[in-house]
Design brief:
Layout (H helix, E strand, L loop, with lengths): L8 H6 L19 E3 L18 E2 L4 E9 L2 E4 L2 E4 L2 E3 L6 E2 L5 E2 L8 E3 L2 E9 L8 E13 L2 E7 L8 E6 L4 H4 L2 H6 L4 E5 L6 E8 L3 E9 L4 E9 L2 E8 L6 E8 L4 E8 L2
Parallel strand pairs: 2-13
Antiparallel strand pairs: 1-3, 3-10, 4-5, 6-9, 6-11, 7-11, 8-10, 11-12, 11-13, 14-15, 15-18, 16-17, 16-19, 19-20
Length: 269
């Protein structure tokens, strides 16, 4: 039986699927459960959490979540079967800047169990908005037989939050040219095979020599592997055996004092 554990937030986000224009769930998460990227949780270290795309006043915006829902929910030591999730079309998500909207995608805002989908927040932030951080509050109810449980995220049982960052149109975040991005120092990395049964070949390309940290995180944001790599400018390959890790989705990260790159890793034995 599939369990969602602390990723109950995905239940509520799921009924927002296909906001504005149809979106496509990331197939990378087809065998996992949760909402990706996960919400910010200040109790753990997660390098790829929250809404990482900045919105700019007067410019089109789009951000997509992938949501994978199972057939049961674990809250602490209790496991409950899940039939469906419902949300109000008018109050499911609050806190969005003026000009950004969402749509449930279904007339009754009901999302069924054992489904993988996505939601997209989209639109153009209006000039009446004030630049800053916009916390998003998500509300809905999950249904298990005759039992209905209204819940909000963040809430008493579900720590964490999503914050959408809104910048002025002339801010540095909104005016960086593609030419500047093209010639800025970057690093690249990939793993093979994908998925892996444990053995993994890491291929990296870095713009500067030095010591980098190679880390693996589970989807709760907890570090499960850490190894320093002394790298020279250019491309190199490194072999690792992650057979000690259970099946699932992970994030792998390469970083130094000035840059960091994070991608996804699937282990399937």
């Amino acid at each position: 039986m599939k369990l969602l554990s602390t990723f109950f937030l995905s239940f509520f986000l799921a009924s927002l699927a296909f906001a504005q224009a149809p979106c496509e769930p990331d197939p990378m998460f087809s065998d996992t459960l949760g909402v990706f990227p996960p919400p910010i949780d200040t109790t753990v270290e997660n390098p790829s959490e929250g809404i990482d795309v900045v919105a700019c006043i007067g410019k089109p915006y789009n951000f997509t979540f992938t949501i994978a829902i199972g057939d049961s929910l674990r809250i602490q030591t209790f496991v409950l079967p899940v039939d469906s999730i419902t949300m109000s079309p008018d109050t499911a998500v609050t806190g969005l800047p003026v000009g950004l909207t969402y749509d449930c995608g279904f007339p009754d805002c009901t999302f069924l169990k054992d489904t993988t989908s996505c939601i997209s927040i989209s639109g153009t932030p209006d000039e009446s908005n004030t630049p800053g951080e916009y916390p998003l509050v998500i509300a809905g109810s999950f249904h298990s037989g005759v039992f209905n449980q209204p819940t909000t995220i963040p809430g008493d049982f579900f720590p964490g939050f999503y914050t959408l960052r809104l910048e002025a149109a002339d801010s540095e975040a909104c005016t960086t040219s593609s030419t500047e991005e093209l010639f800025s120092p970057k690093m690249e990395m990939s793993t093979s095979p994908t998925p892996t049964s444990g053995f993994s070949n890491l291929k990296v390309e870095v713009p500067t020599s030095g010591v980098y940290q190679y880390r693996i995180y589970n989807m709760l944001g907890r570090e499960v592997f850490n190894a320093p790599l002394r790298l020279n400018v250019g491309t190199s390959q490194h072999e690792f055996d992650f057979g000690f890790l259970p099946n699932g989705l992970y994030l792998y990260s390469l970083s130094n004092e000035k840059m960091q790159l994070t991608k996804r890793l699937i282990i399937r034995k």
